[in-house]
Structures are given as C-alpha cells and as structure tokens.
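User: Please run a holo structure prediction.
Assistant: Happy to. Please share the sequence and the ligand.
User: Here you go; the ligand is zinc ion.
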Amino acid sequence: MLLHYIAVLCLIGNFLCGAAPQRDNTGPGPTRNKLLLISFDGFRWDYDQDVDTPNLDKMARDGVKAEYVTPPFLTITSPAHFTLLSGRYIENHGVIHNMWFNTTTQEKKQYYMTQFVDSYWDNGSLPIWITAQRQGLKAGSLHFPGTAATYKGETVGVRQVEPRFYDYSNETDWKLNINKVIGEWFHQQDLDFVSLYFGEPDLTGHKYGPDSPERRKMVQQVDRTVGYIRDKIQDYGLTDKLNIIITADHGMSTVLQDGLVEEIILSKIPGFSFKDIKFHLVDYGPAGMLLPKEGMLEKVYKALKGSHPHLHVYKKEEMPARLHYSNHPRLLPIILFADPGYVINGFFPVQFHKGEHGFDNQVMDMKPFFRVVGPDFQKNLVFRSFETVHVYPLMCHLLGINPEINDGHLDNTKDMLVPKKNNNEINAQLQAIVGLSAVTGFLVLVFIVTTSYVWCKRSRAERR
Ligand SMILES: [Zn+2]
C-alpha cells in the first residue's frame, strides 16, 4: 500500500518537472512588455539643471537616467530620429538631412514636405515599426519623423501625421495626443510599440537661445507633460506593463551674434565663387554641403580650406571616420561645418536664430538627455553615456524582436535592465519547488496512512 503511494508521488513529481514551462525571457511571448519611445526635440542633456523638474526627477528615481547620450552627426532632426528608429549611423541609413533635394533640378523640400517623399526615407534601412509588425507586433507613431513614409510597401500600422501648419508647442494638443496614444492605442487597441514626438524645446531653443528664460519655461512644460504621461499610464493600469524611453535627437548651442564674431559668409571668402558651384545646401545652421561644377572641386576646396578659423572644410571621403558622415551617395563632394557659436551663410547673413544645432556630435551642447522607466528597468540608477545608435537594439530586446542589421549593440545599455533569470535558473527553481512539494506531500501521506492504520487497529481491538 505504502509503496503504491510512493510510486504515484514520484510519477506526479516527474510529470510536473517535465512540464515546467520553457520560458524565453528574451524573445516574444506573454511576458513581453509594451514600449513607448518619446522624443522631445532638442532637449539638451543638462536642461534639467537650471529649472525645477519634479516629474523628470521622480522618473529618474523610479528608473534610469543616462548622464547624456551622443547623437549621430549631422546633429539635426530627421537624420538623428531615423538613427533612433533604425540603429544605423546616418551614412548607413541615408536620411542625410532634414531637406530633400535634387541637384539637377535645384529643387529643395523643407522638413515638413520631405516627410512625404517615400524614397528619401525608404533607402535600405527599416524603421523599428516595420520590423516589429513583420514579427507579429502592433506598432503606432504620432508625429515622429518618418511616420508618413512607406517602407518596402508598408507603413506603420497606426499613425498620426501633423497637419501642414501645426503648432508644435501647444500644451493642450500635447495632452490630447497623449490621451490618444495611452488611452486609445495602448489601452483600447493593445499596441505593443508607439513612438511619440514633441517639437519642443527645439523651437524655443532656436528662437530665444538655450540660456533664455523662455527655454527654461518650456522645459517646465516638458516636465509637466512627463508627469501627465506617467499619470495617464497609471490611470489605465499600464505602469507594470509599459516601458518608457524619453530622449531627443540633439541639443542646442548659443549662436554668437554679429559684431561679437567674424561671421562665416562663403561669398566673401577670397577665391570662392558660387559660379563654380552646381548645387549648394547652406544657410542651414552650422553645416552645409557643396556640389562644385565639373572640374571645379579642387579650386573650391582650396579656396575654402583654412579660410576661416571656425570653418571646417572636408572632401566627403576625408570626413573624420568617427562622424560616420562620409560614405553615402547622397552626400555632396564638399562638406562644411562650423565650430559652436557660428553658422554658415551663403551670399549674406540670413540666419537669425539665437540657438542652433548641427555641430560636431562631440560638442557637449549637442548631447541630448535620456531617461527610461518601466518594469524592465532598474530603479534610481545613473548610467554612463552612450551613442544613440544603441537605443535601437535595446528597443528590439525589450520588444523581443529580431533586429535588422544595425550599428548599435545591446552591450552598451543592457546593464540598465533588471537582470532576468535564465531558463536553467528558472527550471532549477521550479524543480526545487516541485521536489519540496512532493516530499511534503509524501510525509503528510505517511502520517495519514500511519495514523489510519493505528486507528483501524485500535478500533478492531476495541470491537473485539
Ligand atoms: Zn530636432
């Protein structure tokens, strides 16, 4: 009788051990959390240091705050955002500028209209939305650069593109957009990944400069918005199921005003003439590109090289390798960029911003902030800086999807994640629990059987 019980117990134990679920904590599965990627355009890494930012501070305590991150060069909006979405340096993804241009027809399209030129974005690198969708996830994007385009015949499944003349600074609109993303897209439609873009504090930083009271006020608006986002996530019960990454595309630096500095005006440089240029992209902050006419490359290059102490002039193949802004056919033969404080003017000064970006990505003013919070992240951790190409593999890891070829690596961010037990550890723990239960059960049964036997024997004896 007793042996029979033991055999049954062993069988149950073995069955339970064999049936222990093989959980894959790195791949897609029921344990995967949702992910929200937020960009506040032009939010420099140190913008929280001269303003009260209670919500950003709380987020840092609840999650991870990087000291700063390094954006790709060219440090401007569309190229840097597409690096976040693809994990590729700009020379590899090919979205080389905010502007689309055609060097033959001289046609140029500004930031907004470039959003709708599919071929400009769909240039060999897939944004994470498409990769996630191909692997069975549901993705959305609101106002994020690249949202409007079609990639290899696919678009992001749920999207909202801003109208032509949009007020990127309106806090009421920001709240409506957040309600849509959290309440409708994540909660009702059960999306797995959403990218969400805000056009500030970039615009205010350009207009008033990064050291202005207006910029500080806008940072407070961003801070309120971060609080609002986290409240909404809480309201919809998503706090434990949703990871949030908040970052930006670049920083902002003060432009030195005329009179204080010798401005860079190409037409005034001795030996340089726009007559030798077939196509130019200048008057766009501190960086520019030139396509000289046939046979004029050396002449143009020699005239410009060393012509101004704060102007850097390179043939594209000579660009410093660390900038990863050399090896793409869309880049023009001569690339120019200025030191912080300076912008590059063509015929005469036409740029009057007090703040600019587009400088070398080693310049501290160009570094964005980076914050994360959510179930997969550590708490109250200040993290070393890293390049924003590494955000993409982190996002793919969080979503449990296989990344496309990219220039980033998870090694640079994985220490901000909560360590996950691997399968062997989990199975060993499960087996230990099952084993312990079996032994306890066995002892209980032995007790019951022994007690019953003694009780039966006693009753029989009493009946006699
Ligand atoms: Zn930007």
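Confidence is low (pLDDT under 50) at residues 1-29.
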